[in-house]
Amino acid sequence: MMVRAAASGMIDFSKFDPWDNWWWKKLSWIMSELADQQGREVTLAQHNHWITMCSHGGLTEDSFEDCKASASQAYTRLLQLTYPWNAHKIGADGTRTAREDAVATYHKIFGNPGEPRYEEMLDALHSVMKKGKQSSREKDKSRKMRKLRRQQAREQRMGGNQ
Question: Is the pTM of this model over 0.90?
Fold first, then answer.
């Protein structure tokens, strides 16, 4: 960062005095501003990337929503970096990460630790893991069942959309 500050002309290290407190303050401010500028540039690139991804014609509804959420998060972060004095007011909901969304969705589907449905899921998982590897016949049967469930789910979605 100091090389960038010197190369960009933000600071002249030939006049630097290590015993001068004012120089240390000035260096701190310049380094902070340089980091903010670089953060804005990277965030702008991320935002542009997600906006471009949103325009892709092959996106599913879920992937489009993910792209839109990521673009919104990047834009919110860009605004926070541009207006740091208002960062606490800008998009409190927009800073929610995809990880937090995934965890919330997981808890919605499977429940939280301690809930009966969550404990049942763990018990079922434990019994499957305890059983060991599947035979090739069991694998074929499992594949057929998954394929059937996916097909039924697809038909339900298509039937609901018409």
Answer: no
